Structure formats: C-alpha cells, structure tokens
From TrEMBL:
DNA binds at R306, R325, R330. Residues 1-20, 339-359 are annotated as: Disordered. Homohexamer. Forms an RuvA(8)-RuvB(12)-Holliday junction (HJ) complex. HJ DNA is sandwiched between 2 RuvA tetramers; dsDNA enters through RuvA and exits via RuvB. An RuvB hexamer assembles on each DNA strand where it exits the tetramer. Each RuvB hexamer is contacted by two RuvA subunits (via domain III) on 2 adjacent RuvB subunits; this complex drives branch migration. In the full resolvosome a probable DNA-RuvA(4)-RuvB(12)-RuvC(2) complex forms which resolves the HJ. One of its GO terms (biological process) is DNA recombination. The gene is ruvB. Residues 270-359 are annotated as: Head domain (RuvB-H). Gene3D superfamilies: 1.10.8.60, P-loop containing nucleotide triphosphate hydrolases, Winged helix-like DNA-binding domain superfamily/Winged helix DNA-binding domain. It comes from Streptomyces sparsogenes DSM 40356. The RuvA-RuvB-RuvC complex processes Holliday junction (HJ) DNA during genetic recombination and DNA repair, while the RuvA-RuvB complex plays an important role in the rescue of blocked DNA replication forks via replication fork reversal (RFR). RuvA specifically binds to HJ cruciform DNA, conferring on it an open structure. The RuvB hexamer acts as an ATP-dependent pump, pulling dsDNA into and through the RuvAB complex. RuvB forms 2 homohexamers on either side of HJ DNA bound by 1 or 2 RuvA tetramers; 4 subunits per hexamer contact DNA at a time. ATP binds at L35, R36, G77, K80, T81, T82, E143, D144, F145, R186, Y196, R233. Residues 197-267 are annotated as: Small ATPAse domain (RuvB-S). It catalyses: ATP + H2O = ADP + phosphate + H(+). This is Holliday junction branch migration complex subunit RuvB.
Length: 359
C-alpha cells in the first residue's frame, strides 16, 4: 500500500474532515506509517514509475554512489512520501523530511543542507511552494553540492562557500507546472504518479485489511475500491470506517452489503462523491439549470468559499466527467443529470435562464 503522510494540502479539507479528502490528518499519518510498504516489491501500482525507479536505484548501488535527484509529481495520496522512504531504504540511507512552506528563507535551507550526512535522502514535499531565495540556493546544492552562505549585510557582505556531502534530493509536488525549468531540469529522474485502477485499489485494501486484522470478502473490497476516487489513502481511510461499521453493526466481516451500508452512512456514494460534491452538482442542476454559472455564484449557493469549491470539489467532478469548466462558467454534463437521477430541462425552460448566472 502507498500514500503520502504529509499535512493537509488544503485547509478546507482539514476543517471539514472530508472522508474522501486526499489529505492526511494526525490519526491518518499514524496508521499509514504502520501500513507503508518497505520496499519496491511491496509497493502496489505505479508500474512504470516503480520499474524506472528500480533501475535508477540499482545502478546507483552498483556504482557505490548516491542516487540521482528524484522529482515525484501527482495528486495527494498516491504514494510520493512512501516512495521517498523506499528510496532511502533501498539505498541504506537515512531520510530527512521537510516541506516547501517550511523553508521561507535561504538560511533555513542552508541549515538543513549543512547538517546532511553523505548519501542521506532529503525529502522536500510541496517543493513548488519554497521561497525564491531558497530555490536559487538549491540550484547550486543539487548540481555542485555546494552552497554560498552570506555573512554580513550591505557592501561588507561576504559569501562563504560551504561544501556539502553528496546527497539525494527527492522533491514532491502536486503542481508540477509551478516548478521553474531551472529547478525541474536538475532532477535526474522525474516520475508522474497516476490515479489507481479499481483492481489495484482492491490489492491495496486486501493488504491493509490483513495488517489491520480485518476479514474482508473480495466483493467488499471491490465496493470500497469503487468509491475511493483512485487514491490509496482514501481507500485506506474508507476501509477503517467500514471496519468500524462492521464491528458495531455486524459480525465484523466486511461484505459488499456491509461496505455499501457503511459508506452510505458516511455520505460516500457509489462513485465516491461526498456531501460537498453532491451539493455542488445539485445546486448547479436544480438552481441554475445545468449552467453555465460563475464559480462565485455557485460557491454562494452551496454555502462554501470559492476556493473550497474550486480546489476541493471541482477537480474530482471534472475528472469524473460530471462538470466542465468553460469560459462562460461551470456547466453540468449529461452524466451529472443521470447520476443524480434528474431530467435535463427542455430548451426554453430553466436552461434559458443560464445567462443570468454567469460571473
């Protein structure tokens, strides 16, 4: 099994406690740490990245040197942190974990780099959120294993070169497009993490269930996998909630029926939509005739902040083909009407009012 253990990427997910949010809270991190695979052989899914990374690490071990710097991109919960820990384990090296938002000054980065040991793996999550001065310092550190520490201020300032031991930087980002080319080009290996297929998620769930000492039938695992939004972390979280339901309301065995009942209790429907997702779709369909409607208007209709709708609900709805972003506003697709069991309005009916809801 594999998923990241980093702090919530969005404050909205953290505040709302969304069961299908891909970010991990303190409890999630503790459980996930115990369930993480320890090597690439245990890692489920991401076949292309796993095979390529295995070659990179084996070649580095044969040379007796450190591995090239690695950049991992993809949505939260797909296994970037897990892979960084596996890289360190495969190389027999310690790992240092930090994040881009925690490095706001070049001095912060210099302090971390100067304390690294030879061969150590530095995992830098959300690397695109690092400050520009620190980013520029990282260029030289990655390429020449050296940083210039500025002592003093003004005309009397002096740059003191500081040699660094060879190390491996593993950068993780959910928004690879925000990385400047000079930084992206300094990574020797770049891997993009894809969403998981249901069959892969079922393997993740069965492995987790075994480690959690939970008996789950194949159909039960399939039901959970189908509502996990292609994300192992969400699959793991749903499994724990279904386990609770099975323990309290049944005999502890997770069947398809028990899994479906449990996830209905937690407002996770058959396609993985939760309360917020359905609220956005319902408002778009019932209040605005399917759109187009402006994002701000849609957010007011569901009682949420604009950023919450845009960053938390919309990505999954777009990926599922239930909502489209157009220059005129958000538009529901035919699949959205079908999913909510509603009938699209006739031409000249509610849809004729769509122009009123733009902006």
């Amino acid at each position: 099994m594999n998923w990241d253990e980093t702090a919530p990427a969005t404050a909205d997910d953290a505040r709302s406690g969304r069961l299908v949010g891909a970010d991990a809270d303190g409890e999630d991190q503790a459980v996930e740490a115990a369930l993480r695979p320890k090597d690439l052989g245990e890692f489920v899914g991401q076949e292309r990245v796993r095979v390529q990374l295995d070659l990179v690490l084996k070649a580095a071990r044969q040379r007796g040197g450190t591995a090239d710097h690695v950049l991992l991109s993809g949505a939260p919960g797909l296994g970037k942190t897990t892979l960084s820990m596996i890289i360190a384990a495969e190389m027999g090296a310690p790992i240092r974990i930090t994040s881009g938002p925690a490095i706001q000054h070049a001095g912060d980065l210099a302090a971390i780099l100067s304390s690294l040991t030879e061969g150590e793996v530095l995992f830098l999550d959300e690397i695109h959120r690092m400050s520009r001065p620190a980013e520029e310092m990282l260029y030289m550190a990655m390429e020449d294993f050296r940083v210039d520490v500025i002592v003093g201020k003004g005309p009397g300032a002096t740059a003191i070169p500081l040699e660094l031991p060879p190390f491996t930087l593993v950068g993780a980002t959910t928004r690879a497009g925000l990385l400047p080319p000079p930084l992206r080009d300094r990574f020797g290996f770049t891997g993009h993490m894809e969403f998981y297929a249901p069959a892969e998620l079922e393997r993740v769930i069965h492995r987790s269930a075994g480690l959690l000492d939970v008996f789950i039938e194949p159909e039960g695992a399939g039901e959970i996998a189908g509502r996990s939004r292609g994300t192992p972390r969400i699959a793991n979280r749903l499994l724990r909630r279904v386990r609770d339901y099975a323990q309290v309301k049944a005999d502890g065995v997770i069947t398809r029926e028990i899994a479906a009942r449990a996830l209905d209790v937690y407002d996770v429907d058959g396609r993985g939509l939760d309360r917020l997702d359905r609220a956005v779709l319902t408002a778009l369909l019932k209040l605005f005739g399917g759109g187009p409607v402006g994002l701000s208007t849609l957010a007011v209709a569901v009682g949420e902040e604009r950023e919450t709708v845009e960053e938390v609900a919309e990505p999954f709805l777009v990926r599922e083909g239930l909502l489209a972003r157009t220059p005129r506003g958000r538009v529901a697709t035919p699949a959205a009407w079908t999913h909510l069991g509603l009938t699209p309005p006739q031409q000249g009916g509610a849809g004729a009012q769509r122009g009123l809801f733009e902006g």
